[in-house]
Write a structure and sequence with these properties.
The complex is a heterodimer of chains A (111) and B (116). By secondary structure, chain A is mostly beta strands. Chain A has no helices and eleven strands. In chain A, the strands form two sheets. In chain A, strands 2, 4, 5, 9, 10 and 11 form a six-stranded mixed beta sheet that branches. Chain B is globular, with a radius of gyration of 13 Å. Classes of the chains: A mainly beta (111), B mainly beta (116). Chains A and B meet through strand 4, strand 5, strand 9 and strand 10 of A and strand 5, strand 9 and strand 10 of B.
Amino acid sequence: KQEVTQIPAALSVPEGENLVLNCSFTDSAIYNLQWFRQDPGKGLTSLLLIQSSQREQTSGRLNASLDKSSGRSTLYIAASQPGDSATYLCAVNGGSEKLVFGKGTKLTVNP
Amino acid sequence: DGGITQSPKYLFRKEGQNVTLSCEQNLNHDAMYWYRQDPGQGLRLIYYSQIVNDFQKGDIAEGYSVSREKKESFPLTVTSAQKNPTAFYLCASKLLAGRAGTDTQYFGPGTRLTVL
């Protein structure tokens, strides 16, 4: 059974700092991996989707990497801003219609 | 505007009552999903549907029911058999059912259900 773990559970950084969020998964047989952002009391917004054949994806200040063989992904946020404060969720797609989610990392960026 | 709408935003239920959560999408997506989110937890799949008049159980379907009579609508009923229904419920949709390698899921704003 696929399990997804996100470390740390919470992270607080000063504005302007570069940071890395981690996601690990137990079954390397995946189709893709997605990073989502969730603001308090809101739905999820897709940030980046990495196919199993890709190593990384970039969007603006965000860069996500994928090492399928080791079961790891990282989300790199450059020059963090207070508006980046949210919970970041990692989800793995094993090829069915089901996504398996981690519990998320709650990020706080302090002005 | 295209998107996914969920209603109501907040819902209160007395014990023993059934309640129905609405999910509508105008994205012409094939697949629709219902997730449950508890505090500090990841999302767990309740039901999903890839085509009209067909749906499959997810990981935590007990105490829930769904219907898919129209492509754009996928309502979720929380029955009295669900012992701990207080949670945040999220609906999602995806463009091409079955093409798991290419499409992301798009999420609605959620419904927070509280049992009194």
